[in-house]
Design a protein that fits this description.
The protein is mainly α. 90% of the residues lie in helices and 0% in strands.
C-alpha cells in the first residue's frame, strides 16, 4: 500500500471522526439547552459550530476525492 493511500485513509478516518463528534456534541448541546432553558442565541452558536465542523470534514473528503480522481 502506498504512502498516499495510507494518508488518504487517515484523512478519511479524521473526517468520519469529526462528523461523529460534531453530531454527538450538537445533539448533546441541544438537549442540555432545552433542559436548562437556554436562549436561541446559544443554540445558534452550537448550530454554527456544527456547520463549521461539517464543512471542514467535507473539505477533507473533497481533498481525498480530488486526489483519487487524478486532478
Amino acid at each position: 500500500m502506498s504512502q498516499i493511500d495510507e494518508h488518504d485513509r487517515a484523512l478519511g478516518r479524521r473526517a468520519a471522526l469529526i462528523i461523529a463528534v460534531a453530531t454527538i456534541l450538537w445533539l448533546l448541546l441541544q438537549w442540555i439547552g432545552q433542559q436548562h432553558g437556554w436562549s436561541a442565541q446559544v443554540a445558534l452558536i452550537g448550530d454554527l459550530a456544527a456547520i463549521a465542523a461539517y464543512i471542514y470534514a467535507l473539505a477533507l473528503v473533497w481533498r481525498i476525492w480530488r486526489r483519487k480522481s487524478g486532478k
